[in-house]
Design goal:
This protein has helices at about 1-30, 310-320, 335-350, 360-365, 475-485; strands spanning about 35-40, 45, 50-55, 60-70, 70-75, 80, 85, 95-105, 110-120, 130, 135, 140-145, 150-155, 160-165, 170-175, 180-190, 195-205, 210-215, 225-235, 240-245, 245-255, 255-260, 270-280, 285-290, 365-370, 375-380, 385-390, 395, 405-415, 440-445, 450-455, 465, 470-475, 490-495. By secondary structure, it is mainly β. Strand 8 (about 95-105) and strand 9 (about 110-120) form a beta hairpin. The chain is rod-shaped, with a radius of gyration of 54 Å.
């Protein structure tokens, strides 16, 4: 009985020892140093600058490690760390690479642990080209070409936006930039972490120019050359074209806008048109009426247009009345009736029929010479009114002074008399200026053939039909008349 008990105790003890040994062996196996994780990760792509990291389980149990890259033992370059090993990668060609690690320990059961994996290196920066033109645009969209699959990021002061290049490498993105000039940076990053950076400037203007006109308020009374100021608000550069009454006007750029120089404007209403075009081709148009009343005096260099008012308009209607184009009371306003009378005069005289009294019309109506042959007098009308009467001599019966409507064609002081092509002048020589000159000191030529108004040293002939067709005057009278006459003035010769 006792022997059986002893045998049982021995058996129990053996089993206990075996069990304890098994536990110890299992624990030792579980705690042996093996590769737990690696970087770069298996199957990953890196740029080749990240070091090789090997993390061991039970790293303190490892006695050594053999690390090979593409079959080359680099163990002597590895650095031992509390968690394993770190190995700076040498320069590596782009492409796949294989790493193997053999860890040696004092474990009697399994004294080595082996681990191998592959990864790919890519050290080439991705290409990046922005195909969007760098000029002004109505859209902030950027288009370009980069490495297929790369991430494209646009960064500027107030934000950033990203996209992915498609399989052909094309990309487009729209930065949320404000109108104006915005510098930004484009970054292309591939899967390996390589980056390419490029500067890009966005020039965006999505709207039309905003324009405010200033400088003229109400009637302009101090000048007939007023200036108009255009204050322009535009994100992009602008070009301004100005027209005054349909004609190009000079535009000068200022720091905050533009100055439009209107040149000499007619008395009355003029129209200024401005065309403001920004760098994207969008145009804003503005018009402004300018009303000028800067003078009351009607001079030959003046232009009167509808809307004018004052004494100058009244004088114009007085002149038109003398020309038999106006009836009734004078008008101090350039209204539709005045315009109609101006058009009628223009039509009669072959002038451009636009209803605007320009210098040619004003000059032509500024005065009028009326010769009354039967009374041997010359009446001078100025500014639509009778001015003065002068005694004259006219053509003798054999060489009569022609009748009709003519105009002054030339004016010469101290003329030389040249014999005309006429039988009565045959054999005569030219006479230079002087006391014996048959033309006196002044010659006022007319459109009547070979007929003019001139002085004469033969005072006795005044008041008779004594000339060869011309109108003779006392020298002092013709010199006075000369000061009031202008080329183009009408000359009416009656019997």
């Amino acid at each position: 009985m006792r022997s059986r008990t002893l045998i049982g105790l021995i058996a129990v003890a053996v089993v206990g020892v075996v069990a304890i040994g098994g536990v110890l062996v299992a624990r030792a196996y579980a705690d042996r140093p093996v590769v737990d994780s690696v970087s770069p990760a298996p199957g990953s792509t890196v740029n080749g600058t990240t070091p090789l990291r090997i993390v061991l389980r039970s790293a303190d149990q490892a006695e050594s490690a053999t690390i090979s890259v593409d079959g080359v033992d680099l163990s002597d370059q590895a650095e031992r760390t509390p968690s394993g090993y770190v190995l700076p990668l040498p320069p590596m060609a782009d492409g796949p690479h294989r790493v193997s690690v053999v860890v040696t320990s004092s474990d009697l059961i399994d004294d080595t642990a082996t681990y191998a994996w592959s990864f790919t290196t890519d050290g080439t920066a991705p290409k990046l080209t922005a195909t969007t033109a760098g000029g002004w645009s109505t859209s902030a969209k950027i288009k370009g070409v980069a490495e297929p699959g790369s991430t494209i990021t646009a960064m500027w002061e107030d934000g950033e936006v990203a996209t992915t290049a498609d399989e052909a490498g094309y990309f487009s993105l729209v930065p949320g930039v404000a109108d104006g000039v915005t510098p930004l940076t484009l970054v292309a990053a591939d899967a390996a972490g390589n980056e390419t950076r490029a500067g890009h400037t966005m020039r965006v203007d999505t709207g039309r120019p905003s324009v405010r006109l200033g400088g003229i308020d109400g009637w302009v009374t101090d000048t007939d050359r007023p200036k108009v100021y255009a204050f322009v608000d535009s994100a992009s550069p602008t070009k301004v074209v100005a027209k005054v009454n349909g004609q190009d006007a000079k535009v000068t750029r200022m720091s905050i806008g533009y100055t439009v120089e209107t040149s000499k404007l007619p008395q009355g209403t003029s129209e200024v048109e401005l065309f403001i075009t920004n760098a994207t081709g969008k145009t804003a148009t503005r018009t402004k009426e300018i009303q000028v009343d800067s003078t009351e005096k009607l001079t030959n260099d003046l232009t009167l247009a509808p809307g004018a008012k004052g004494d100058d308009v009244a004088n114009l209607t007085r002149r038109l009345r003398l020309a038999k184009m106006w009836k009734g009371k004078l008008s101090w306003e350039y209204n539709a009736k005045v315009e109609k009378a101006v058009r009628a005069y223009q039509r009669k005289e072959g002038l451009p029929e636009d209803g605007i009294a320009r210098p040619a019309l004003i000059s032509a109506t500024g005065g009028k010479i009326v010769v009354l042959q039967s009374k041997f007098v010359l009446n001078l009308y100025l500014d639509g009114k009778f001015f003065k009467q002068y005694p004259i001599a006219v053509g003798q019966p054999a060489y009569p002074t022609p009748t009709g409507s003519f105009v002054v064609t030339e004016m010469i002081e101290n003329p030389t008399w040249t014999p005309p092509n006429s039988p009565w002048a045959a054999g005569l020589e030219p006479v230079p200026p002087g006391a014996s000159n048959p033309l006196g000191t002044r010659w006022i030529g007319t459109s009547a053939p070979l007929v003019g108004i001139h002085g004469t040293p033969s005072d006795w002939s005044i008041g008779s039909a004594a000339s060869h067709g011309c109108v003779r005057m006392h020298i002092s009278d013709v010199e006075e008349l000369f000061t009031h006459v202008a080329v183009g003035m009408p000359v009416e010769i009656k019997q």
